[in-house]
Amino acid sequence: MNPQAPRAVVMVRPHAFRSNPETQGDNGFQTAGTVDAQQALAEFDAAVAKLRAAGVTVHVFDDHGDRDTPDSVFPNNWFSTHAGGHVALYPMHAENRRRERRSDVIELLKTDYRVQDVIDYSGLEQDGLSLEGTGAMVLDHLHRIAYVAQSNRADPVLLERFCTHFNYEPMAFAAADPDGLPVYHTNVMMGIGTDYALICLDMIQDPTRRAEVAARLGETREVINLTVDQVTHFAGNALELTGTSRLLALSARAWDALRSDQKAVIERSATALPLSIPTLETAGGSVRCMLAGIHLTPRERFAA
């Protein structure tokens, strides 16, 4: 199993998709206003079908909207999985996002995969702390580095605690979106594949830290330096997966925003899998946010 490119993901089907007023204040990528929930559902189902056709195992859970969870389509923020059988549950910043956590997802993981322990940080929400999973942290699973854009969704004390528990080195930096606000989630400006890394270095405000991040990534991967405009089209919000071949899942809008030379770097290592989700992207996230990668060993099934 490639530690950077999982073979399976969890996705949550949104039956009552809408924008989230509780996250509009710090998510500069979100579009306010009404959306077509049926169109969002159709985009979701088409994305699932395309992932499965490419050989990715997709575990789908339904959210019928009865718990007021407008961002439930983005499950990567409330849990993550890790090689060796480890699962983490995270504290969320917005109150209505805390309701996204669900025990049936964790039970599925325990049933179908080898889970050794579940480390639950979510109780720290009561102290006003949050660390929103692989939205807040972009993880280099191969070299054990957690890249983090500093924001109110990535508490530094919790980051240190996570890195101690899961054996990652934290590499935090200040980054700003086009309006000068802190980048709310690292994974909108950055994604890491096996052989390459997508990142908008211009969003990192301190020149010294920018150079350090670029150098660290460049030690092990080819760096694809995104423009700010490409990030606004979610070009950084991508996840490498393993299906019938190594894949890069991202939105069609993101893929179209990349230059031919940038695409060539990706295509030397992975096959692009663009998914059309324009309605879902109005919530301020894209394909990577929709995919909670499963970095666990599947349980062996023996015939009776």
From TrEMBL:
Q: Which SUPFAM superfamilies match?
A: Pentein
The organism's superkingdom is given as Bacteria
- Note the Gene3D superfamilies from the entry: L-arginine/glycine Amidinotransferase, Chain A (3.75.10.10)
Task: Name a Pfam family for this protein.
Answer: DDAH_eukar
Stated name of the protein:
Amidinotransferase
Q: Which organism is it from?
A: Thalassovita autumnalis
What lineage does UniProt assign to this protein's organism? Bacteria, Pseudomonadati, Pseudomonadota, Alphaproteobacteria, Rhodobacterales
